[in-house]
Amino acid sequence: MSSVRLIAIDIDGTLLDSNFQVSARNLATLRRANSLGIEIVLATGRRHTFALPVAQALGFELTLISSNGAVTRTNDGKLFHRDPLPLSSALELVAHMTDFRRNLVITLDGEDEGSLLLETLDELNVSIKRWLEKNAPFLRFVQPIEGGLTSDPIQAMFCGTVERMAAAQKHLKKNKGLLTRITALKTQYDKRDLCMVDILNRGCTKGAALRRWAEFKGYKPEEVMAIGDNYNDIEMLEFAGHSYIMGNATEELRDRGWTETLCNNENGVANAVDAVLEGLE
């Protein structure tokens, strides 16, 4: 473990506890890792602006992979890579998934007001009320939603109950041609009966973004550690030479041979990173 030079960490369900806070122990451990020369990357399904306060709270320079790999920036805003969803694919997606428009949010390329496009809050308000409150200044309502799509968006997100999103994924699979041009990534919280299905450009994942950044910095996979808890972390965990899943991780991640740490309410990130630090000090 002493060979680890980069640690990639998911945010929700991993770094943050159930109150959406970074614990004092997680904070202290990551700051210590940074002081010892280990690079920290946050890799999240959140868009950059929504993830930035978490990155800034850590108190040191880091790289932020957001929108499940579609955007990679340093926390001072410098862009490293952007992988948007082609407009043609986005328009075909909306047309095919017309029965799920009330569950749809599209993230546009930009971080200013109006960068989140949707038709209505009717179903979303129940599923992701806190997210909507935090992102209220960025919401723009357009009916039909295609009217607001004039350039390649960053991603599309369908959000709702687990049952509703299972139906959405089943319907999405009927368009086999579209599936060859997109990536669909699921994030699911069974206890909250909440599921999000993110639609991105083909091949766009946290793992692809992490690989790109690691290669740019000259890190080999065996020098990379990753920590995650959900379906959208799988590619990132597969790339890293040292992979940890949270004690609260979804069941699908548990049979892949990855090391399990404590849950997000028990400082699981600090517990995993401590194994690296013991090899350095």
Q: What does this entry look like structurally?
A:
This protein is 33% helix and 23% strand. It is of the alpha/beta class. It folds into 2 domains: 6-82 and 204-278, HAD superfamily/HAD-like (Rossmann fold), CATH 3.40.50; 87-201, Hypothetical Protein, Haloacid Dehalogenase-like Hydrolase, Chain: A, domain 2 (2-Layer Sandwich). The strands form 2 sheets. It has an 8-stranded mixed sheet with strand order 5-4-3-2-1-12-13-14, sandwiched between helices. Strands 8-7-6-9-11-10 form a 6-stranded mixed sheet. The radius of gyration is 18 Å and the shape is globular.
Outline of the structure:
Helix content is 33%, strand content 23%. The chain is an alpha/beta fold and 281 residues long.
CATH level 1 class label of the largest domain: Alpha Beta
The H-and-E topology, N to C, reads as: EHHEHEEEHEEHHEEHHEEHEHEEH
What's the CATH H-level homologous superfamily of the largest domain? HAD superfamily/HAD-like
Give the beta-strand count. Answer: 14
Question: Which fold name fills CATH's third level, the topology of the largest domain?
Answer: Rossmann fold
- State the end-to-end CA separation: 12 Å
DSSP helix count? 11
Question: How does the overall form come out from the CA principal axes?
Answer: globular
Oligomeric status = single chain
For the residues shown, what is the average pLDDT? 94
Radius of gyration: 18 Å
The structure class reads: alpha/beta
Low-confidence stretches: none
Number of domains: 2
